[in-house]
Design goal:
Strand order of the largest sheet: 1-4-5-6-7-8-9-10
CATH class: Alpha Beta
Bound molecules: indole-3-glycerol phosphate
Distance between the termini: 38 Å
Structural class: alpha/beta
Number of strands: 10
Radius of gyration: 17 Å
CATH superfamily: Aldolase class I
Number of domains: 1
CATH architecture: Alpha-Beta Barrel
Shape: globular
Largest sheet: 8 strands, parallel, barrel
Amino acid sequence: MARYKAVEIEQWRASTPLSKLAEQAKRAKPARDFIGALKAQSEARGGCPGLIAEVKKASPSRGLLCPDFDPVKIAQGYEAGGAACLSVLTDAKFFQGGFENLAAIRRAGVTCPLLCKEFIVEAYQIFKARAYGADAVLLIAAVLSNPDLEYLTKATRSLGMQCLIEVRVDAGSQVHDVPEMQRMLDLDLTGCMLGINNRDLRTFKVSLQNSADIMASVPGQEVQRRGLLVAGESGIFTHEDVQEARRAGCGAVLVGESLVRQGDVAQAVRTLLGE
Ligand SMILES: O=P(O)(O)OC[C@@H](O)[C@@H](O)c1c[nH]c2ccccc12
Protein backbone atom coordinates (compact mmCIF):
# COMPACT_ATOMS: atom_id res chain seq x y z
CA MET A 1 0.00 0.00 0.00
CA ALA A 2 2.77 2.38 0.98
CA ARG A 3 4.64 1.56 -2.24
CA TYR A 4 1.63 2.38 -4.38
CA LYS A 5 1.40 5.76 -2.63
CA ALA A 6 4.62 6.94 -4.25
CA VAL A 7 2.99 6.54 -7.67
CA GLU A 8 -0.14 8.35 -6.53
CA ILE A 9 1.83 11.23 -5.02
CA GLU A 10 3.68 11.76 -8.31
CA GLN A 11 0.32 12.12 -10.03
CA TRP A 12 -0.90 14.63 -7.43
CA ARG A 13 2.32 16.60 -7.67
CA ALA A 14 1.95 16.86 -11.44
CA SER A 15 -1.40 18.65 -11.05
CA THR A 16 -0.74 20.49 -7.76
CA PRO A 17 2.86 21.37 -6.90
CA LEU A 18 3.83 21.49 -3.22
CA SER A 19 4.16 25.29 -3.34
CA LYS A 20 0.49 25.62 -4.29
CA LEU A 21 -0.59 23.10 -1.67
CA ALA A 22 1.44 24.95 0.97
CA GLU A 23 -0.44 28.14 0.13
CA GLN A 24 -3.77 26.35 0.50
CA ALA A 25 -2.60 24.88 3.82
CA LYS A 26 -1.68 28.35 5.02
CA ARG A 27 -5.13 29.68 4.16
CA ALA A 28 -6.93 26.87 6.00
CA LYS A 29 -8.48 27.57 9.42
CA PRO A 30 -6.07 26.78 12.29
CA ALA A 31 -5.88 23.13 13.31
CA ARG A 32 -7.85 21.94 16.34
CA ASP A 33 -6.42 20.14 19.35
CA PHE A 34 -7.04 16.47 18.52
CA ILE A 35 -5.21 14.99 21.53
CA GLY A 36 -6.73 17.60 23.86
CA ALA A 37 -10.26 16.67 22.75
CA LEU A 38 -9.64 12.99 23.53
CA LYS A 39 -8.16 13.76 26.94
CA ALA A 40 -11.02 16.13 27.77
CA GLN A 41 -13.61 13.50 26.88
CA SER A 42 -11.86 10.85 28.93
CA GLU A 43 -11.62 13.20 31.90
CA ALA A 44 -15.28 14.18 31.62
CA ARG A 45 -16.29 10.51 31.53
CA GLY A 46 -14.36 9.35 34.57
CA GLY A 47 -11.45 7.83 32.68
CA CYS A 48 -13.39 6.01 29.94
CA PRO A 49 -11.26 6.17 26.75
CA GLY A 50 -11.97 9.08 24.40
CA LEU A 51 -13.56 8.00 21.13
CA ILE A 52 -12.14 8.50 17.64
CA ALA A 53 -14.94 7.38 15.31
CA GLU A 54 -13.83 6.42 11.83
CA VAL A 55 -15.55 7.41 8.58
CA LYS A 56 -14.82 4.26 6.56
CA LYS A 57 -16.55 2.91 3.49
CA ALA A 58 -14.57 -0.27 2.82
CA SER A 59 -11.35 -2.05 3.74
CA PRO A 60 -9.12 -4.66 2.10
CA SER A 61 -9.77 -7.15 4.89
CA ARG A 62 -13.53 -6.67 5.27
CA GLY A 63 -14.65 -5.48 1.83
CA LEU A 64 -17.53 -3.03 1.49
CA LEU A 65 -18.74 -2.02 4.96
CA CYS A 66 -21.21 0.67 4.06
CA PRO A 67 -22.94 0.42 0.64
CA ASP A 68 -24.92 3.69 0.88
CA PHE A 69 -21.89 5.59 2.20
CA ASP A 70 -22.49 9.29 2.92
CA PRO A 71 -19.38 10.62 4.71
CA VAL A 72 -20.97 13.89 5.83
CA LYS A 73 -24.04 12.18 7.26
CA ILE A 74 -21.90 9.66 9.10
CA ALA A 75 -19.63 12.38 10.50
CA GLN A 76 -22.61 14.40 11.70
CA GLY A 77 -24.08 11.29 13.33
CA TYR A 78 -20.82 10.52 15.10
CA GLU A 79 -20.60 14.07 16.42
CA ALA A 80 -24.23 14.07 17.53
CA GLY A 81 -23.67 10.76 19.34
CA GLY A 82 -20.74 12.20 21.28
CA ALA A 83 -17.50 11.13 19.54
CA ALA A 84 -14.56 13.30 20.65
CA CYS A 85 -12.73 13.10 17.31
CA LEU A 86 -13.19 11.65 13.85
CA SER A 87 -10.85 9.66 11.62
CA VAL A 88 -11.46 10.03 7.89
CA LEU A 89 -10.02 7.48 5.46
CA THR A 90 -8.50 9.33 2.52
CA ASP A 91 -6.89 6.39 0.73
CA ALA A 92 -8.89 5.77 -2.45
CA LYS A 93 -7.35 2.58 -3.83
CA PHE A 94 -7.69 0.26 -0.83
CA PHE A 95 -10.32 1.96 1.34
CA GLN A 96 -12.47 3.84 -1.20
CA GLY A 97 -11.87 7.02 0.75
CA GLY A 98 -10.84 10.49 -0.40
CA PHE A 99 -9.40 13.83 0.69
CA GLU A 100 -12.59 15.43 -0.58
CA ASN A 101 -14.43 13.68 2.29
CA LEU A 102 -12.31 15.60 4.80
CA ALA A 103 -13.13 18.89 3.12
CA ALA A 104 -16.84 18.05 2.81
CA ILE A 105 -17.07 17.16 6.52
CA ARG A 106 -15.38 20.43 7.47
CA ARG A 107 -17.57 22.43 5.12
CA ALA A 108 -20.67 20.85 6.66
CA GLY A 109 -19.73 22.46 10.00
CA VAL A 110 -18.62 19.39 11.95
CA THR A 111 -16.44 20.70 14.79
CA CYS A 112 -14.77 17.50 16.08
CA PRO A 113 -11.03 17.44 15.32
CA LEU A 114 -10.29 15.33 12.21
CA LEU A 115 -7.56 12.75 11.64
CA CYS A 116 -6.43 12.21 8.06
CA LYS A 117 -6.18 8.41 7.72
CA GLU A 118 -3.67 8.03 4.92
CA PHE A 119 -0.54 5.96 4.24
CA ILE A 120 1.85 8.85 4.68
CA VAL A 121 5.30 8.44 3.18
CA GLU A 122 6.04 12.06 2.23
CA ALA A 123 5.50 15.54 3.66
CA TYR A 124 3.44 16.35 0.56
CA GLN A 125 0.56 14.32 2.00
CA ILE A 126 0.71 16.23 5.29
CA PHE A 127 0.36 19.55 3.48
CA LYS A 128 -2.51 18.05 1.53
CA ALA A 129 -4.18 16.90 4.77
CA ARG A 130 -3.93 20.44 6.20
CA ALA A 131 -5.16 22.02 2.97
CA TYR A 132 -8.26 19.79 3.14
CA GLY A 133 -8.98 20.64 6.79
CA ALA A 134 -7.36 17.84 8.81
CA ASP A 135 -6.11 18.55 12.35
CA ALA A 136 -4.00 15.41 12.77
CA VAL A 137 -2.36 12.77 10.60
CA LEU A 138 -1.61 9.08 10.93
CA LEU A 139 2.00 7.89 10.70
CA ILE A 140 2.60 4.14 10.55
CA ALA A 141 5.82 3.09 12.27
CA ALA A 142 6.07 -0.18 10.33
CA VAL A 143 6.73 1.63 7.05
CA LEU A 144 8.81 4.56 8.34
CA SER A 145 12.34 4.68 9.74
CA ASN A 146 13.04 6.86 12.78
CA PRO A 147 14.70 9.59 10.66
CA ASP A 148 11.57 9.61 8.45
CA LEU A 149 9.36 9.80 11.53
CA GLU A 150 11.43 12.69 12.93
CA TYR A 151 11.09 14.55 9.65
CA LEU A 152 7.36 13.89 9.20
CA THR A 153 6.43 14.70 12.81
CA LYS A 154 8.34 17.98 12.47
CA ALA A 155 6.54 18.81 9.24
CA THR A 156 3.23 18.05 10.97
CA ARG A 157 4.05 20.27 13.95
CA SER A 158 5.14 23.09 11.64
CA LEU A 159 1.57 23.13 10.29
CA GLY A 160 0.12 23.25 13.81
CA MET A 161 -1.16 19.68 13.54
CA GLN A 162 -0.67 16.58 15.67
CA CYS A 163 0.32 12.98 14.90
CA LEU A 164 -1.09 9.61 15.76
CA ILE A 165 1.84 7.22 15.39
CA GLU A 166 0.67 3.66 14.93
CA VAL A 167 2.63 0.65 16.13
CA ARG A 168 1.90 -2.91 15.18
CA VAL A 169 1.08 -5.97 17.17
CA ASP A 170 4.18 -8.05 16.65
CA ALA A 171 7.56 -7.45 18.14
CA GLY A 172 9.71 -6.89 15.07
CA SER A 173 9.43 -4.21 12.43
CA GLN A 174 10.18 -4.23 8.71
CA VAL A 175 12.30 -1.13 9.10
CA HIS A 176 14.37 -2.18 12.10
CA ASP A 177 14.66 -5.24 14.23
CA VAL A 178 13.68 -3.30 17.34
CA PRO A 179 10.06 -3.62 18.56
CA GLU A 180 8.16 -0.58 17.37
CA MET A 181 7.02 0.76 20.72
CA GLN A 182 10.64 0.64 21.87
CA ARG A 183 11.76 2.47 18.72
CA MET A 184 9.20 5.24 19.41
CA LEU A 185 10.85 6.10 22.72
CA ASP A 186 13.84 7.59 20.85
CA LEU A 187 11.65 10.14 19.04
CA ASP A 188 10.65 13.65 20.02
CA LEU A 189 6.98 12.90 20.63
CA THR A 190 5.85 16.51 21.17
CA GLY A 191 2.38 16.85 19.67
CA CYS A 192 2.12 13.10 19.18
CA MET A 193 -0.01 10.31 20.53
CA LEU A 194 0.48 6.62 19.87
CA GLY A 195 -1.88 4.00 18.55
CA ILE A 196 -1.70 0.23 18.84
CA ASN A 197 -3.26 -1.54 15.89
CA ASN A 198 -4.90 -4.71 17.12
CA ARG A 199 -5.05 -5.91 13.51
CA ASP A 200 -1.95 -7.61 12.18
CA LEU A 201 -1.67 -5.98 8.75
CA ARG A 202 -0.12 -9.09 7.16
CA THR A 203 -2.58 -11.69 8.40
CA PHE A 204 -5.52 -9.28 9.11
CA LYS A 205 -6.09 -11.16 12.39
CA VAL A 206 -7.46 -8.98 15.20
CA SER A 207 -6.99 -9.47 18.93
CA LEU A 208 -7.53 -6.91 21.69
CA GLN A 209 -4.94 -8.79 23.70
CA ASN A 210 -2.33 -7.10 21.50
CA SER A 211 -2.94 -3.71 23.13
CA ALA A 212 -2.70 -5.26 26.58
CA ASP A 213 0.54 -7.09 25.74
CA ILE A 214 2.26 -4.04 24.25
CA MET A 215 1.16 -1.76 27.08
CA ALA A 216 2.42 -4.27 29.66
CA SER A 217 5.83 -4.51 27.95
CA VAL A 218 8.78 -2.44 29.20
CA PRO A 219 8.45 0.23 26.46
CA GLY A 220 4.66 0.25 26.97
CA GLN A 221 5.15 1.02 30.64
CA GLU A 222 7.62 3.78 29.79
CA VAL A 223 5.03 5.31 27.46
CA GLN A 224 2.49 5.26 30.30
CA ARG A 225 5.01 6.73 32.71
CA ARG A 226 5.62 9.61 30.32
CA GLY A 227 1.88 10.27 30.21
CA LEU A 228 1.58 9.74 26.46
CA LEU A 229 -1.92 9.14 25.17
CA VAL A 230 -2.36 5.73 23.53
CA ALA A 231 -5.29 4.65 21.38
CA GLY A 232 -6.40 1.06 20.99
CA GLU A 233 -7.23 0.59 17.31
CA SER A 234 -9.31 -1.93 15.36
CA GLY A 235 -11.61 -4.77 16.33
CA ILE A 236 -13.53 -2.83 18.99
CA PHE A 237 -17.22 -3.70 18.81
CA THR A 238 -18.83 -3.34 22.22
CA HIS A 239 -18.68 -1.19 25.34
CA GLU A 240 -17.01 -4.16 27.05
CA ASP A 241 -14.25 -3.98 24.38
CA VAL A 242 -13.81 -0.28 25.21
CA GLN A 243 -13.46 -1.21 28.89
CA GLU A 244 -10.89 -3.84 27.96
CA ALA A 245 -8.87 -1.19 26.10
CA ARG A 246 -9.11 1.00 29.18
CA ARG A 247 -7.83 -1.78 31.42
CA ALA A 248 -4.94 -2.27 29.00
CA GLY A 249 -3.97 1.38 29.58
CA CYS A 250 -5.47 3.01 26.48
CA GLY A 251 -6.82 6.53 26.98
CA ALA A 252 -8.51 6.48 23.59
CA VAL A 253 -10.03 4.01 21.12
CA LEU A 254 -10.31 4.16 17.34
CA VAL A 255 -13.41 2.44 16.00
CA GLY A 256 -14.65 2.08 12.43
CA GLU A 257 -16.41 -1.05 11.29
CA SER A 258 -18.71 -1.64 14.23
CA LEU A 259 -20.08 1.92 14.00
CA VAL A 260 -20.29 2.38 10.26
CA ARG A 261 -22.20 -0.89 9.80
CA GLN A 262 -25.13 0.40 11.85
CA GLY A 263 -27.99 2.42 10.43
CA ASP A 264 -28.16 4.93 13.28
CA VAL A 265 -24.52 5.83 13.86
CA ALA A 266 -25.32 8.42 16.56
CA GLN A 267 -27.04 5.71 18.61
CA ALA A 268 -24.18 3.32 17.83
CA VAL A 269 -21.73 5.83 19.36
CA ARG A 270 -23.86 6.23 22.49
CA THR A 271 -24.11 2.46 22.95
CA LEU A 272 -20.37 2.03 22.46
CA LEU A 273 -19.72 4.72 25.08
CA GLY A 274 -22.01 2.87 27.48
CA GLU A 275 -24.91 5.33 27.53
O1 LIG B 1 -12.81 -0.85 11.52
P1 LIG B 1 -12.11 -1.15 12.81
O2 LIG B 1 -11.77 -2.60 12.99
O3 LIG B 1 -12.85 -0.59 13.99
O4 LIG B 1 -10.67 -0.39 12.73
C1 LIG B 1 -10.55 1.01 12.66
C2 LIG B 1 -9.08 1.40 12.42
O5 LIG B 1 -8.33 0.97 13.51
C3 LIG B 1 -8.54 0.80 11.12
O6 LIG B 1 -9.29 1.30 10.08
C4 LIG B 1 -7.07 1.12 10.88
C5 LIG B 1 -6.09 1.11 11.81
N1 LIG B 1 -4.92 1.45 11.26
C6 LIG B 1 -5.07 1.68 9.96
C7 LIG B 1 -4.17 2.08 8.99
C8 LIG B 1 -4.64 2.30 7.72
C9 LIG B 1 -5.99 2.10 7.41
C10 LIG B 1 -6.90 1.70 8.38
C11 LIG B 1 -6.46 1.49 9.66
